[in-house]
Amino acid sequence: MNNIVALVGRPNVGKSTLFNRLTESRSAIVDETSGVTRDRQYGKSEWNGIGFSVIDTGGYVVGSDDSFETEIRKQVQLAIDEADAILFLLDVKDGLTPMDEDVANMLRKSKKKVLPVVNKVDNPMRMNEIAEFYALGLGEIFPISGMNGSGTGELLDELVKDMQPEEDENIELPRIAVVGRPNVGKSSLINALTGEDRNIVTPIAGTTRDSIYTRYNSFGFDFMFVDTAGLRKKQKVNEDIEFYSVLRSVRAIENSDVCILMLDASQGLEQQDLNIFGLIQRNNKGVVIVVNKWDIIEKDTHTHKRYEDLIRERISPFSDVPIVFTSVINKQRIYKVLETARKVYESRSRRISTSELNEALLPIVKEQNPPPAWKGKYIKIKYITQLPTAYPQFVFFCNLPQYIRDPYRRFVENRMRELWDFEGVPMKIFFRAK
User: Fold this and answer.
1) φ and ψ at 307, to 5 degrees?
2) What gap in Å lies between CA 420 and CA 78, rounded to an integer?
3) Under the phi-then-psi rule, with left for phi > 0, alpha for psi from -120 to 50, and beta for the rest, what region is 198?
4) Conformation bin of residue 185: beta by default, left when phi > 0, alpha when psi is -120 to 50
5) 0.70 exceeded by the pTM?
6) Could you give the CA distance from residue 331 to residue 188 in angstroms, rounded to a whole number?
7) CA angle 387, 388, 389 (to 5 degrees)
8) Torsion angle defined by CA atoms of residues 256, 190, 4 and 106, in that order, rounded to the nearest 10 degrees
């Protein structure tokens, strides 16, 4: 079960500040100007051993003040549809506003867990001002300060109280999700593959709001497609398509083993693609980048190489990723996409024996390239082992792990990628005291 938490509220109540605190990141831009969050923001968080995804519905509000309300209504509705729990942010300085009451009316009708969070309560005087928010009729009010973090512990205790720990669905087959921005050809790819012969598709439904698994068993492949945005009936024509696709992508990525990230060759790698790539990486899923609509690009002998280099530059430092150029409409190289995804899946599940790891790596980290000394202290790596996890994680036992720096960690990772094929697979390396 994957838990999704949405932050809703009118502009400038501190959604991005709380988002940064929950995800321990600085990725949301925080600014006094309301409606500054333009990109979708999503990250991972954890409390008391329960993991969840956080989505900041901030500032899709574009244009004049009178368009604020319809935009916010739209965001709140999407959050209600997709999220498991909703944090409704309010601002103690502004008090209760008509727009807050508007949002509260929508939330009251939802069957979701809604926690009203009054932000900017950063001194005892302000505590007296939270009483008016009980008028919203949404139950217990949680006063917090997103800036200094006071009150967030009690809020998170309540938030995760009914959540189940995240766990992989018990499906033995590889699970492959096709993700990307709207209109890059995700549905066309799935249709081109499954449209050959209708009897190779058996829908295995997850829970209604979770991703739907479709089994693909043909041409020597056998795996589950995790269906994303395209396959759900659109109840509302005026949805914010981009935001909606992100919410669906979050679910699909979390429910998959390998993600096929589709790009439109005519548009290149845009910020939204990088956001989705970052999400795949943070969830430690395998990834294949597929550049679709390659047939419409004017090409010379170097176009292919230039395009590929540009993508690797943008996604660095994790640039050891397979890139496949296709034209789904012409069915060019679509089976190459599946072959590559299967290879990434196998690499992600690979186990390397402790003896093989130590035999190959100890000469490198002990003799050829030991960690640089730190303030006269020499670091000695004694022993290496792989952890029994769903994706590659390795522990290097040594005498002074605290003195190992990131450049050395990257050096070790690159050598491991050369020795064993981990293309398209994020990996983690830990240094621990023996």
Assistant:
1) -65, -45
2) 43
3) alpha
4) left
5) no
6) 10
7) 95
8) -170
Amino acid at 427: M
pLDDT in tens, the chain (434 residues): 568 898 988 888 888 889 888 887 654 444 443 444 334 466 778 898 888 888 877 644 444 455 556 766 777 777 777 788 999 999 999 999 988 998 898 888 888 899 999 999 988 888 889 999 999 999 999 999 988 888 999 999 999 998 887 655 445 789 999 988 877 888 788 878 876 433 333 444 333 234 556 778 888 888 888 766 433 334 443 445 556 556 667 878 888 999 999 999 998 888 888 888 988 998 999 999 999 999 888 777 778 888 999 999 999 888 899 999 999 888 889 899 999 999 999 999 999 999 999 999 999 998 888 898 888 889 899 999 999 998 999 999 999 899 888 999 999 999 999 999 999 999 999 999 87
- The number of residues making up the chain comes to 434
Reference 225, options 181, 190, 277, 186; nearest CA is 190
Token pair recorded at residue 105: 């009316």
Strands (DSSP E) found in 1-130: 4-8, 41-47, 50-56, 85-91, 113-119
